[in-house]
Amino acid sequence: MARTALVTGATGFLGRQVVQAFKSAGWDAIGTGFFRANPPATLKINLYDPAEISSALLEVKPEVVVHCAANRFPDNCDADPEGARRLNIQASEYIAHTTSHYDILLIYISTDYVFSGKLGEAPYEADANPQPTNLYGQTKLDGEKAVLQATRDTGLGIVLRVPVLYGKAEEPRESAVNILMDSLWRAQEKDVKIKMDDWAQRYPTNTEDVARVCLDLTVKYLDNQDALSSMPKILQFSSEDRFTKYEICRLFAEIMGLPVDGVVADKGGGDTKTSVQRPYDTHLSTQGLKHIGINVRTQDFQAWW
């Protein structure tokens, strides 16, 4: 009998790949969504309603919930702070309480933006002191705390931090990396100059690799439930490929055979007067995953394109 997984945010950029990874491994993978949900392929669930969450878990009976649903764009979080808090914190807390009640494993997807990214601090171990520089990072950190608090008695809550993601997308704007290809094309227009950050260090990681790690973590934790109390609750996954956004644009230009003159390097990313302060370098250490035997290999960034 196939094992069952439930994936929130399954209509989104990462969620789609997580569903596919579990299905490819022979699991029954059920996705949830809201605005883009397409029942029965994807369940329509209001994550702000604990009763709906409970009903879905009783119907699907999953062994694991991978919680991908989030407001994951820093500018959007600043534009709608209450909406960001509701989805990234409140909904996560509801899910964690419900999965814990039914003894279901929960993997909460978090971010490298929980760290300050100050010069010289990276790479960050999982137990390093979080200090977000923006509201997005703060809401995800508060979501981590809510999940771990709600699952403290069962030990069935795991936080998985990841950096900026790229991969298969329905449209480029789903990814802060994929959309840079659009920026490069716009820069080909006459007299167009596009400023591009050449300050913050990014470690673009493929959604397929993150999905694989979610699957491997699920199997590892479910098959070792007697040892859950001693297994880490916060883990981190990241590629080692390192770029600024400007460097990614230059790479795309090389791949596409396009000039890059219309893209202008912006070295002023450390300006504290900007509306959303982004950290300099939040590189995540993957030592925790390696310690429990999880493969941390990633696709080569340049080769994927």
Describe the structure.
With 305 residues, the protein is an alpha/beta fold. It contains ten helices and eleven strands. The chain has helices at 13-24, 50-60, 74-79, 81-101, 135-150, 179-186, 207-222, 245-256, 287-291, 301-304, and strands at 4-8, 28-33, 42-44, 64-67, 105-111, 157-162, 165-166, 194-197, 205-206, 234-236, 263-266. β1 (4-8), α1 (13-24) and β2 (28-33) form a beta-alpha-beta unit. α1 (13-24) packs across α7 (207-222) and α4 (81-101) packs parallel to α5 (135-150). The longest helix is centred in the N-terminal third of the chain and has 21 residues, at 81-101. It is globular. The model has no long low-confidence stretch (mean pLDDT 95).
